[in-house]
Amino acid sequence: MSRTIEPDMVRHIAKLSRIELSEEQLATFGRQLADILEYFDKLAELDTTNVEPLAHAVEIHNVLAEDTPRPSLSADAALANAPQRDGDFFMVPKVIGDSL
Amino acid sequence: MIDAADNVTPVIGLEIHVELATATKMFCRCRNHFGDPPNTNVCPVCIGMPGVLPVMNAKAVELALKVGTALNCTVAEFTKWDRKGYYYPDLPKNYQISQYDLPLSLNGWLEAPLAEGAVKKIRIRRAHLEEDAGKNVHDHPAHTGVDLNRAGVPLLEIVTEPDMNAVEEVMSLARAMHRLVRWLGASEANMQMGQMRFEPNINLHIAHGGAIHKTPIVEVKNLNSFRALERTVEYEIHRQYEAWQADPDGFRLEKMGKQNRGYDDAREQTVFQREKEEAHDYRYFPDPDLVGVVVDRPWRERIRAGIGELPLARRGRYMDGYKLTFKEADALTQDAATGDLLDSAVAAGADAKRCVNLLLGRGAAIANERGCSIAQIGITPAALAELAGMLSGGTINATAAAKVFDTVVLESGSPMVIAREQGLLAVRDGGAIEAWVDTAIAANPQAVADVQAGGKQQKKAFGFLMGQVMQLSRGTAEPGEVQRLLRSKLGIPVTD
Amino acid sequence: MNDLSNLSALELRDAIAGGTVSAVRAVDAYLEAIARREPAVGAYNEVLAERAMEQAAAIDRKRQSGRPIGPLGGLPLAIKDNLCTSYGRTTCASKMLANFQAPYTATAVARLEAAGAIVLGKTNMDEFAMGSSTENSGFRPTANPWDASRVPGGSSGGSAAAVSARLCAAALGSDTGGSIRQPAAFCGVVGMKPTYGRVSRFGLVAYGSSLDQIGPVTQNVADCALLLGAIAGGDPADSTCLDRPVGDYLIELEKPIEHLRVGLPREFFSQALDAEIASSIRLAAEVYQSLGATIVDVSLPHSRIDVDGEGKVSSYAVACYYIVAMAEASSNLARYDGVHYGHRTARDVEDIVDLYCKTREEGFGSEVKRRILLGTYALSSGYYDAYYLKALRVRRLIKNDFDAAFGHCDLLLCPVAPTTAFRLGEKTADPLTMYLEDIYTISVNLAGLPGLSLPAGLSKTGLPIGMQLIGPVFSEDRLLRAGRMYEKASGVSGLRPEMTKK
Q1: Phi-psi region of B79 (alpha: psi -120 to 50; beta: other; left: phi over 0)
Q2: Residue pLDDT, tens place only, B374-391
Q3: Could you give the angle at which helices A23-40 and C366-379 cross, rounded to 10 degrees?
Q4: Size of interface A-B (CB pairs under 8 A)
Q5: Where do the structural domains in chain C lie, given as residue ranges?
Q6: pLDDT tens-digit profile of C329-346?
Q7: Topology of the domain comprising B430-490
Q8: Helix, strand, or coil here: B149?
Q9: This prediction's pTM
Q10: Residue C91 CB coordination number (10 Å)
Q11: Cβ within 8 Å, pair B40-A97
């Protein structure tokens, strides 16, 4: 039972992932993704009712830092790796508003 | 205009973003400070450089717990961090560290004060901690600049249930929240600095033809002032009603779902906004770089104990205990420190009412001039208590006390010493007062004539002469004695 | 004899401390070895010759003036190129970060340097540590020093090849699903994946954050103990790193463990395993038996390896691992978008989304893209429960299996990889075949356990065969001692490929 992934689905995932894919890549990745997902489906064999998810292998908690300032980078150091800057700002194509 | 025949109920909920008043950011130790030059409060962690890791700020967790507790929420025994994925240049990691299924606080309420004394309980759905995004600067026509100073600032997101049904209720809740977070020291909540932002969601339930029509829910992001919030809610209520009237079958929640609109500051109205693509697939999952927070009972109790009396409780106590009017009590509970000042002075033995008169008289006037709270004008509880005591004991009268109050605020020091140095202590010595009375009578024959003539001008002229005497005494003469002597010298009855 | 390749790191350390070899000479010798053998191996992305010489001179001055030079004083080490250094570049072997200069140094690297070590250079790897052969490097593949037509394993292939070819005294790698242990096995060197939380991840470019650990890649077990002791321990910059005391792993290293119970996980000896490797592991078990250990049959049902009628291999652990790792990777790698650092497309863009999409298309290789796409899928609405959440539940089952097994034994002995080093290009066509390279190593990462990979011997064709020791959390000392027991009893230690003997 070989599964397939619709090109629209691959396109949607690529968009969510912000990766441009050519039509050819779309087809290749579609096939590979289907194979791998089929492999992943093996997990469905296991009954995991009442099994707590394990997100951290070593379960610790309450690791908190004191609210005491430490030196920041200078704007120049912060922007040293920036592909494009405008004065002391990172520069990007026009966007609207802030995200929050 | 809304047709009264249509029974229209606005249904409004609020999301409130509050930046916490910490010294450093949520997950790194860069300063949390507004107004610095761009990209100077940044480090590899808040720039989201490869390989760096977040470490949570103890103070931010503490302040968030305080607000959650004050909002009567259930504080989670275990809370954790999740990543919320979306791409935007002000979010350097392209995910925001937030809390998804196990927020810090759940299911509380806050009382929104309505007309004198009445309140409405607005339910709080949740309050969770997250990191703020940076700022996109749009002053260039062709591109955007990104400043990450704000990126990573601790942000408490408080979500109410849609329990508000009128713009007044929204504004009252918003103001109560503003007062509360400042009261707790959890946030400066300065709106010009974006430290408190509102996101109302608004729709209408319209009883029409035996059915309830629900208009699409509109969410308006990033409102930075009470005025913007008020205008948005007012505008939306009318806009939605008109849109429904124009198309009662189409303009419905079940057909159009939720919508985002923006707020146009200049026009003071909301505007259509294109949906961001895939805005709703945030791909939340637990952040593997952070560990959970266990809030045990001793910790919860310590937080509770640290909260103290909240504004509405204090206002009630002032009305009942100090016998203040609603207006007085309300004015004294705008912030925690002013009431603390009053309470300390009373605890030092002063009469509450006299303290209140001083604080709401010259105190409020000075605070108003300076644009600060009464507590911030700089009078100590001891000085306030001493001055109130002098008033009670008659060592000073109200006029002179106001002058002493001003001097204490400017130069500090003991009111008694200041009053003595400036010769402002009450003068009861009959001889001294008599001399001032005689001088005033001699200098103002017209007023004397008007008093003695009786009739319409008498009261005014008598007041004028009283004022002249008080001026000659620089406010120190005991007013009762002045009145008695004036009356007897002018030959009018001693009592009214 | 200018070549110091006959000295282990520990021996070289002692020679420098004793003054018989200067740090400058040590660095010089390795730079010379690099000049001679590196062109055939391709282990390094960047050699920091000048800086290394300066550091060496400073160490020598220190020693001459009688000041302590540290427990690693003068040791020339190689660092995997996903560990940030405030000097040179940190590329993760990706075009995306080809010119990235980190303004900080990873805690593990900083600790090595604080202990006197000298960083010789940054080693090649699979791009963003995604791969098992180093063929996914965005720059070029690395050759296995034992056979240049074969891969060194991956993703820490550059570090393993560098140690194997004696192009450094020892190295650091990172291990998310076997990325230290498998290349160590392929190259005939020792590699350890410490307990999750034993070594700070600060400065390690994240792939699967809940699985990643930094660890040593060394010539022998003692060197491994030396390096681990230097890098382990709590770090306020990493919330997931435990502040738990670090012992001196060398002190009791030579002392054999008495009454050792060695567990053989029966599920690992299926037909998926190369027969020669299976017999090597059984031989190793006999060596332990001869040293007084008891061999115990244990079961790890959820790490089972199934082979169907057509020879198709499958495993719950592999499925679980790849879902978790890819989901985390899809989020961890979201930051590479051409805005704040790294590659940005030079093509014209319509808007910011277009900028992101083109930048990421150009900057990432296909394996990285594949994993981001799959991880995004596993977390996306409608699939989260079936994939990601399901994988987390299976992860719990896998961990529980280990907990149960350690009720019956002190450590597990098992293979590292199903085969010896395979040929370049042999497994690049089908990503799934490559994923199966990790069947014996990934469960350890899912459960957060320490795993030690050390050479068991050589195959008939002269390729190294590795063996793996797995212990409960924080049992690194036990694994190292048990590894040392094997080295001594079998005489398999400090294996050197022919190229280092010329």
Answers
A1: beta
A2: 999 989 999 999 999 988
A3: 60
A4: 147
A5: 313-394
A6: 999 999 999 999 999 999
A7: Arc Repressor Mutant, subunit A (1.10.10)
A8: coil
A9: 0.92
A10: 26
A11: no
